[in-house]
Amino acid sequence: MTRINITLLSGSAGHLLMTIKKHTGLGLSEIKTRISNINPLMEVDYVNINERKKMKDFVEDLIKHKANFKLFEQDEDYKEELPLEHFMNSFELSRQIAEDREKMDEILVEEDE
Question: Is residue 13 part of a domain?
Fold first, then answer.
């Protein structure tokens, strides 16, 4: 299963603690520990659109606060940095795929009739 996680790179993230807590639900001491150890603050299932949406909201808040972070895509066999643009564009792609599926369903229903 492919997962996406986000890691904060900034050592001085004191002004971000409440924002991170709001999105992750982690306690302040856990957030500080994860930041200092450069461990992920949030991890989501790549195919779960609801989880990815929560991460997108988190990413947008981090961008707004000019935080230094990285996204990673990982599986059992690999881990690589996920470009921010690719992550953000995946939502538009998911929307387009859903629209295409609806159109195909409509065409198939018409053919069945």
Answer: yes
Q: Would you say residue 111 lies in a domain?
A: no
**Does the residue 11 lie in any domain?**
yes
Bridging pattern class, strands 69-74 and 42-45 = unpaired
What sign results for the dihedral spanned by CA atoms 45, 46, 48, 49? Answer: positive
Q: Give the range of the structural domain holding residue 76, as residue numbers without chain letter.
A: 3-83
Report pLDDT digits (tens) over 17-76: 999 999 999 999 999 999 989 999 999 998 888 898 999 999 999 999 999 999 999 988
pTM over 0.85: no
Q: What is the CATH number of the domain that holds 43?
A: 3.30.1390.10
State how far the Cα of 83 lies from the Cα of 70, in Å rounded to an integer.
8
